[in-house]
């Protein structure tokens, strides 16, 4: 694993010490000796993790961290604050400034490296989501990234897995009104509970009498539904090796007992904020993909999706020697509807037609808007004779009830012509299948409209 690490400290010896440690692990190291230079480096270069000293002249580490986290261009970069200060209040202050972790000098090499590697993995995930979101379409990503998720009114839903009643009661008291907290005293039941419920964070105690908590962490990381849920380990003094192993397995953070309320809430808030941030990016990518293959007017799939998916359905039907049929529909005299009722009226007709079409086909059928007033339905496992009956049912459904359009609900008569074709045994292609359906549609239109024509297989 390689990454670019920015070391920020006003004391050259401290910079050199961290630089040597990081270079030995094959990280690329950048350095800065003051806050403004650090901010400029983050703005202008690809930085994966910032190791930030707190005690610097002019602009201290807290202010540097606040500025980095408030700028949408740099807010996703993980920041680890490193200082000689060891008071809980100092850690809380750093976390409230937006820091992802807080290490105390002298820094243990193993803790430093496992924390850096953990944050590099997290940064890689965020970078991938940002890249997908920004390259699929212009989604207003700067506005998205500048949202302050931690200040949202919704409190996070959190699961605590801890078998000690006294510990549970203390944490419940600490998080009252700060989290919607569920508790599981059994790690096996807790695993299934985490998998079945949408939690924004899972906190796992290390103090089980006869169960390895890291096994639970590993199981949560291996399951698709919980892979990206933040995990905070609640550890005892002297469990440094277990914490390091946990970070290697993918836990996001840890707290040492006795737990301080302010630090608990600050670290929980940090994890929830990052999860919501990444969830927003994932949702945006998903929405972009859906928009790319969906017709926005009717909600049916669009021609792009048909072009990519029809070949797959065709190849599957041929390989399995199963029937497959296609129908192409065209609204009769649709231009006259647009001329008489405007494009808004025409859009209403198209939406209502799509609704009736969807009602008369199966879930496995692929219904698409082909373009304009033409629609295509691909019907797997359907013989030509059956497809013709379905087409006739759709034609009758359109013709028998007028379409209501406009604010006054004016009723207009609408009819549709349909061409049907089926896969031929022997040599056939998608292009030939669609050509036969198109010719059948032409015959239906030229033969008087409001009818179904099927090309015999």
Which CATH class of the largest domain applies here? Alpha Beta
Shape: elongated
- Count helical runs: 15
Distance between the termini: 58 Å
Average pLDDT metric:
89
Low-pLDDT sequence parts: 137-145
The amount of helix comes to: 40-55%
Q: Which topology of the largest domain does CATH recognise?
A: Alpha-Beta Plaits
Main beta sheet: 5 strands, parallel
If strands are numbered along the chain, what order do they take across the biggest sheet? Answer: 2-1-3-4-5
How many runs of DSSP E, i.e. beta strands? 17
Considering the protein shown, what is the CATH homologous superfamily of the largest domain? Reverse transcriptase/Diguanylate cyclase domain
What's the multimeric state?
Answer: single chain
Radius of gyration: 30 Å
Write out key terms for the chains shown.
about 450 residues, alpha/beta, Rossmann fold, Alpha-Beta Plaits, 3 domains, five-stranded parallel β-sheet, 15 helices, 17 strands, about 50% helix, about 20% strand, elongated
